[in-house]
Amino acid sequence: MDDLVQLADDQAAKAAAGPHGRSAHLVVHDGVLRQTVIALTAGTSLDEHNAPVAASLQVLRGRVSLTIAGRHEELSTGQLQALPPERHGLLAHVDSVVLLTAVTN
């Protein structure tokens, strides 16, 4: 069993030390299911990209903005958001760690 608190700590440290201000670790890869811990330093973003078949984003720590079709939705620690199957991006307002759960085909 993985410890999400420890994974969040590890990825946050890697993001802070890395040149791009982000780090990711694939936690679960089981058939079509993927779960990834993603850390972003304050001001770092993931550019808009295509969405998987189904996905959700849970903020483990920090505060982020999810951009979907020109809308911005702010999420903070403990919040969980289903992602619609359309292009989206992510911006960290403060050092943040999220858990992305995705179903691929």
Characterization of the model:
- By secondary structure, the chain is mainly β.
- The protein has one helix at 4-17, and strands at 22-30, 33-40, 45-49, 54-61, 63-68, 71-76, 80-83, 88-92, 96-103.
- A five-stranded antiparallel sheet has the order 1-2-9-4-7. Strands 3-8-5-6 form a four-stranded antiparallel sheet, with no helix packed on it.
- The model has no long low-confidence stretch (mean pLDDT 93).
Question: How would you describe this structure in keywords?
Answer:
4-stranded antiparallel sheet, 5-stranded antiparallel sheet, 13% helix, mainly beta, 105 residues, single chain
Write the layout of secondary structure elements.
Layout: H1 4-17, E1 22-30, E2 33-40, E3 45-49, E4 54-61, E5 63-68, E6 71-76, E7 80-83, E8 88-92, E9 96-103
Antiparallel strand pairs: 1-2, 2-9, 3-8, 4-7, 4-9, 5-6, 5-8
Q: Which sequence of SSEs, written as H and E, runs from N to C? A: HEEEEEEEEE
For the secondary structure, the number of strands is 9
How far apart are the first and last residues' alpha carbons, in Å? Answer: 25 Å
Strand order of the largest sheet: 1-2-9-4-7
Structural class: mainly beta
In terms of quaternary structure, the protein is single chain
